[in-house]
Amino acid sequence: MRELRWILQLNVILLLSSSFQNKEDETYPLTVKVKDLRNENGVVQFALYNTNGSIPDEEYTKYYRKSTAKIKNLSAEITFLNLPRGKYAVNVLHDEDKDGKVKKGLILPKEGIGFSNFTSLKISNRPSFTKAAFEFVGEKEIEVHIIYL
Description:
Immunoglobulin-like, five-stranded antiparallel sheet, alpha+beta, about 15% helix
């Protein structure tokens, strides 16, 4: 009887301690989708950033996480798992030649690019982490518009 009582008390303590888990330790998924790609050549590269000053990143060296996805029906998506709460920004490249870098003409990109919070790119509206960032506090799905210049 004493053993049963001790096991019951231990279970109650474990249950209570798990319900007071620190919210900062929790992680969530972020799904990023793109659609209306101009073709199905190559792959779509998704780069996730969490540091001010990390965008622009034409050589893809400052990212927090990066992944690629195959294109199907002119669309692609990726889910970044186990992300803590915080500020994030997304940079997406339609990497038609699969080299992992933005292919450029003289100045402008030849491949499609996109950033969270952006629907167009202009000289006066250059992407930055501050402009592309969003608050991430739990499971989320976003769509990034791919821009072909």
